[in-house]
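Q: Give me the 3D complex with uridine-diphosphate-N-acetylglucosamine.
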Amino acid sequence: MVVTTTPLRSTLVQPRLEVTGGTTLEGEIRVSGAKNSALVLMAACLLSKDSLLLHNVPRLTDIASMGEILAALGVRVTRSGETVELLADHVSRAAPPYELVNSLRASFFCIGPLLARMGMAQVPLPGGCQIGTRPVVEHVKGLKALGARVTIEHGVVTAVVPGAGQRLKGGHILLDCPSVGATETLMMAAALADGETIIENAALEPEVVDLARLLRAMGARIRGAGTPTIVIDGVPSLHGADYHVIPDRIEAGTFLIAGAITRSSLLVTPVITDHLGAVLAKLEDCGCRLTPEGEGIRISAKEINAIDLRTQPFPGFPTDLQAPFMSLLATATGTSMVVENIFENRLQHVAELQRMGASIRMQGNTACVEGVTRLSGAPVQGTDLRASAAMVLAGLAAEGITTVRGLEYLDRGYSQLEHKLNAVGARIQRVSGDA
Ligand code: UD1
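A: Here is the predicted complex, encoded as structure tokens.
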């Protein structure tokens, strides 16, 4: 018998957060720039030879990964505080390396601008992730409608613009579903195409509007972003820009829920209320008081009532806040129904919340959450980025200590989460992997 010994990396030595529950939060908590905007705006640098200066870029491992991917393509990336300068005057290759793409799904965004600028792009398929399969069919279908020849072999998508000028041609694209990533990829590709492109059934998310604003600042001609029909008149070239990333609506939502779950009064700032309409409405339905204050929103919470919610594309309730909101509902009075409609595998946090004493029954993509008087601290595993945040939130409300593992996910999307929460009264300690 062959006995294989795998190196034992005990879960005990993984880096973790130890959250001591039971404190109320007080003061002001600041929201960083939007991760999902910043990632796509960084990719847009490939569309111009001039410098792109992005401000309010959050400090996250996902942003660092995107920087590495762009650098591998020949882009000069410089970071100073929250500002990132990207200079793509010389793009040396049109094929980002697999190892880097594999570490960041959003790197598939590069395919649109690379194709528009270089006439070809070769990008590994990003593959699925913890929350679902994450197909890119709509991206590929749209690029074909713009005249690209696209083949997928051995897990690599190769897209080439045929003809001497190697310039994409405007086209009419009807998306089967309003995919955020596909809308963004196609907007970037169409910005430099020859002629007019119409994208129908486009995603309405604020990050799509943010990209349109940046592209316009770079000289692109785009209208209709934020509506289901986006029209792009291609231009021969784009110039540099100096641009501020919008605040992160998902981080803002997470902090508002932190205020609610700890029954606190907390000022979250800055918040663009239009970006969070569905979330604010649900918090009010739960019984929270929301008051505009300066650029932010103050949440005041006492008792939390059960509510029902279903995730939908924007302006519906965002899938990225489903897990954090479920932590809140686990502490509500009464029974809530939560339906996940966007990603097929995005209820893995249910089992972890159950370990903390939550009373949740699952049927398909629906969780029936019966609120309990008190969650109890337990060792839990964050199974994806937002599920990890949900565990931290649950830990804030729980009795005793909650140990949250899976920080490699958390650090991808939350900038200094524990520092920000500790500054308003939370008690969270990061324990390194060696301890
Ligand atoms: C983006 C966000 C992610 C968020 C998601 C939904 C970034 C970097 N990530 O991801 O945080 O959770 O929007 O708001 O911005 N689909 C297809 N075919 C496709 C593409 C997508 O069927 O070709 C489906 C997906 O399976 C999913 C739905 O469309 O069910 C939404 O996906 P999409 O909007 O593309 O999400 P991402 O852009 O990947």
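A quick observation: Residues 36, 39, 106, 132, 134-139, 177, 179-182, 203, 207, 318-320, 342-343 surround uridine-diphosphate-N-acetylglucosamine (CB under 6 Å).
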